[in-house]
Amino acid sequence: MIAMLLAVLVLCAMDACMKQLAGHYPPMQVAALRGMVGLPLVLAWAAASIGLPALLRVHWPLHLLRGVLGVVFLSCFVAGLRDLPMSTAYAISFVGPLLVTAMAVPLLREHVGPRRWTAIAVGMVGVLVVLRPGGEGVMTRAGLLVLAATVCYAASVVTVRMLAQRDSAQALVFWFLAMVAIGAGLLAWPQWVPLRAADGWLLGGVALFGTLGQVALTHAFRLGEASLVAPLEYTALVWVVLLDVVLWQVLPDAMTWLGAGIIVVSGLYLMRRERVVRAAPLPRSGD
Length: 287
Prior knowledge:
Layout: H1 2-21, H2 27-49, H3 60-83, H4 86-93, H5 96-108, H6 114-131, H7 141-163, H8 169-188, H9 200-223, H10 226-229, H11 236-248, H12 254-279
């Protein structure tokens, strides 16, 4: 639990650094930089734990698919994060676990019963509350970009579920960053903006916080039950609100709080139902 809380905190700090960078560089370039600056530390982690040759023994097709999803996910998320408060972007992204469950039905052939489908539907209502289509809310290009990023993130998580049975955590992190660095770097190259020396500390923050977050996540899910550890992801809302106030002097409005609350409650209920279903000796018709 401590590892998960630490992971959530440092990954929020990494996103704050990327939001700052997005004010000076194109989103695709920021996505490429996210991959580039993290690779040396991940290589050091892999060398100290499993050895570098083990990074080559992976299931390439799924890694390539995850790399493509990663490029789209990071570039869309950075583009949306640039124009939205972090708290609003995170409120939308909290629907990710619900989408993972929905995608697991056709892609992983998992059974999802009516109660969990109801939780997914309620969570999507929460997203609509945050976006407020037709009103004065944030149904903007930025909000839709974050939603698109969340869909890609959910699809990427499904590929991780498939890869986790075959490849190491170090390989998953390394090839994700490598493919994002190469793919986003090639797409960003025509409009590449020279890096400013003043942004070196932000790039260092992305590298350090991103790597520490990945290591902490790996330890959290290896040492603890997923049903106990995963809900702690929602503590991110506390940190992003504090970051919004301290760095950008903004606060989420009442509708964003309401939508985030609906999504979080739906996600927590879904996790509880998944734990109950896994513990049941026989399939339950109402799962």
